[in-house]
């Protein structure tokens, strides 16, 4: 009888030891360093502020903006449709479904693109699909869209078209509260001119496939 218990105890010890060598399926799969470096060098991982703006206005269902700043900064201002996942919370299980949802292009942004780029690297290392960085972050978005500058009269037509797109986009985001082009300060702001319709300006380069 004692021998049977001894054998059973040995088998239990062996079984328990085997569990130590089983792969941890809860741990996300990481890509190798060479693959990560190649992905970092790929400019297709960046998406411009104009492209983001175009997709917001077009209500692109595939776009998911992710603000990686702090909750306090997010409450002060956030881009339309964005959700807040602070960079130090990216690997928390509760956000896994958001980051891995199918059919979505996850675009990270922060004040500049430094924190967003770090978030991209964290997620790319763990094989999160279809992730991008908004180039220049909110600072660039404000400079190009909300503070767009009118080109001179001799500028190429492409630059003029882009300016009109940005101006109309600014009016879209502000409800037309910004001064129209050529409208002088001191005017009450009332204008018989209708706000420009936002026109899609096709770019020569398009966002590449998922990173």
Which terms summarize this structure?
Oxidized Rhodanese, domain 1, 8 helices, alpha/beta, 41% helix, disordered C terminus, 211 residues, 5-stranded parallel β-sheet
Q: Any idea of the CATH topology of the domain at 33-139?
A: Oxidized Rhodanese, domain 1
Main sheet: strands, sense, barrel: 5 strands, parallel
- CATH H-level superfamily of the domain at 33-139: Rhodanese-like domain
- Low-pLDDT windows of residues: 4-26, 177-211
Helical segment count: 8
Instruction: Estimate the strand proportion.
Output: 5-15%
Mean of residue pLDDT values: 77
Shape: globular
- How many β strands by DSSP? 5
| Helix-strand string | HHEHEHEHEHEHH
Helix content: 40-55%
What is the CATH architecture annotation of the domain at 33-139?
Answer: 3-Layer(aba) Sandwich
Describe the structure.
This protein has a five-stranded parallel β-sheet with strand order 1-5-4-2-3. Among the domains are: 107 residues, Rhodanese-like domain (Oxidized Rhodanese, domain 1, 3-Layer(aba) Sandwich), CATH 3.40.250.10; 38 residues, no CATH class. The chain contains eight helices and five strands. By secondary structure, it is an alpha/beta fold.
Secondary-structure blueprint:
Layout: H1 2-19, H2 33-40, E1 46-47, H3 49-57, E2 63-67, H4 71-76, E3 83-84, H5 96-100, E4 105-109, H6 114-125, E5 131-134, H7 137-146, H8 157-174
Parallel strand pairs: 1-5, 2-3, 2-4, 4-5
Q: What's a quick, concise take on this entry?
A:
The chain has 211 residues and is an alpha/beta fold.
């Amino acid at each position: 009888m004692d021998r049977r218990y001894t054998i059973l105890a040995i088998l239990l010890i062996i079984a328990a030891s085997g569990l130590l060598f089983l792969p941890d399926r809860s741990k996300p799969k990481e890509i190798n360093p060479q693959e990560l470096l190649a992905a970092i060098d790929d400019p297709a991982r960046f998406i411009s502020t104009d492209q983001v703006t175009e997709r917001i206005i077009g209500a692109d269902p595939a776009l998911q903006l992710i603000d990686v700043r702090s909750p306090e900064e997010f409450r002060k201002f956030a881009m339309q449709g964005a959700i807040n996942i602070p960079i130090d919370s990216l690997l928390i299980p509760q956000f896994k479904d958001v980051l891995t949802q199918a059919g979505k292009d996850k675009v990270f942004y922060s004040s500049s693109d430094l924190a967003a780029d770090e978030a991209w690297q964290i997620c790319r290392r763990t094989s999160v699909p279809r992730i991008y960085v908004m180039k220049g972050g909110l600072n660039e978005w404000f400079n190009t869209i909300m503070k767009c500058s009118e080109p001179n009269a001799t500028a190429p037509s492409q630059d003029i078209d882009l300016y009109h797109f940005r101006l109309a986009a600014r009016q879209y985001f502000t409800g037309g509260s910004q001064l129209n082009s050529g409208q002088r300060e001191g005017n009450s702001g009332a204008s018989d001119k209708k706000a420009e319709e936002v026109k899609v300006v096709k770019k020569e380069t398009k966002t590449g496939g998922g990173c």
